[in-house]
Amino acid sequence: MSFRWKLTGALALVAILAAVGTYFLAAKALGDRFQTYRQQEQQVAGQELAQLLGQFWEVRGSWAGVDQLFGARVTVYLFRQGRAVTLSGQMGRYLLLDREGRVVASGEPSLLGRDSALDPVLQKRVEQYGIPVVVAGRQVGTLVPIDPAVLTPLEQDFLSSVRRAALAGGAVALAIALILGTFLATELCAPLERLIHATQRIAQGDLAHRVTIRTRDELGKLAQAFNRMAEALQRSEAARRQFLADVAHELRTPLSVIRGNLEALLDGAFPLTPESLAPVYEETLHLGELVEDLRTLTLADTGHLNLEKEELDLGELVAEVVEAVRPVAAEDDVQIKLVREPDLWVSADPRRIRQVLGNLLSNALRFSPPGSTITVSVAKKDSEVWVSVQDQGPGIPEEDLPHIFERFYKVDKSRAEGGTGLGLAIAKEIVQAHGGRIWAENQNGARFTFTLPQAPKG
Length: 458
Prior knowledge:
The structure is a single chain. By secondary structure, the chain is of the alpha+beta class. The chain has 3 domains: 3-156, no CATH class; 218-301, Signal transduction histidine kinase, dimerisation/phosphotransfer (DHp) domain (Helix Hairpins, Orthogonal Bundle), CATH 1.10.287.130; 310-453, Histidine kinase-like ATPase, C-terminal domain (Heat Shock Protein 90). The protein has 9 helices and 13 strands. It has helices at 3-60, 67-70, 120-129, 153-203, 218-267, 274-301, 314-331, 350-367, 423-433; strands at 73-78, 83-88, 94-98, 103-106, 131-135, 138-145, 310-313, 335-340, 345-348, 373-381, 384-390, 438-442, 446-453. Strands 8-10-11-13-12 form a 5-stranded mixed β-sheet. Strands 4-3-6-5 form a 4-stranded antiparallel β-sheet, with helices on both faces. Strands 1-2 form a two-stranded antiparallel ribbon. A hairpin with a 4-residue loop joins β3 (94-98) and β4 (103-106). α5 runs antiparallel to α6 (274-301) and α8 (350-367) runs antiparallel to α9 (423-433). The model is unreliable at 75-79 and 414-418 (pLDDT under 50).
């Protein structure tokens, strides 16, 4: 069974239960209220009749002939039922007891002469509903309703008409509720069906498909979230394909060099000497670096990048890396200047931070002209430790700045030969794994900065 029919059925069941429950509660409340009203009306009418009967006694001095007042009958035509009904008059609904408790007048002749002292039911009715007939301060009789719970045909017809009206109203309300419920179920299910269709399209590979957003409620927000998810999947798929293409391209060059040299050696074009094997060895080293870089990025993507953190002075670590790189920089006639503050403690993996700083310094050396200076600074700002590497090279083109940390992205391929294009991407993953930030900017050259959270002194 579809969700639409389940929802429609649930709404219909709720509407039916509400209509039936409302009808029975309304009918019961109406019956109880009407019964209370009848009793109050009988009491008021009984008070007025008791005054009239008191006047009768005052004139006659006894109850002789009073039974004629209770025998009056009235004929009423019930239009709804199409029949005539003969009813007792107002006094015919009561019975009159004398001072000794005997029935001297009643609309029902069978009750005449009955003694309340000998009839427990009549005695109880007298105690509950009896209205004294008083003349000159002396009670001469008691007026009692014959049966307060018994409805007259007119009263029964009135209650029946009210119940029929309530039933008709409930039926109309139920029909309206069912129509509105069906419409609501359709309106709720239509966006879900569009989402299901869009999900199927995405599963079939159509990552460009989007859901039309028509509302701003929760379903509209769900559609927005779905579109954002589809957009992220599309970007991820494009990045994956570009990544595979870049990996294939990066692997093709060293493999081609290795194959070409080996073929030349096998064909005898090159002699088997250390000099002829050197290019093959260098390309295998390049392949090893590329594989290791890809492994590092894969571990970072899956959240399994192993960090062996320890408390260390970041300034001391940076100084060690700078001293290790200084001889290489001297060969290119580039000086490295270190500016650092003391006691800059962080919780970090020293091997990984050396890798980050090594990538930044290697990148700075690659673009630094002879006679220039690379400035490395380590300082505290707020609750972070900032490490910056500033060169005096041409800087980074503005259009390349947003992509500088993307994988295999090279600003100047002709000047970046020999690199894998993954160094900055790896540096970003390592810094973020430590809870820090990294960015690039132009300040009289390229300036790369990364931060690490400061830790208490170890």
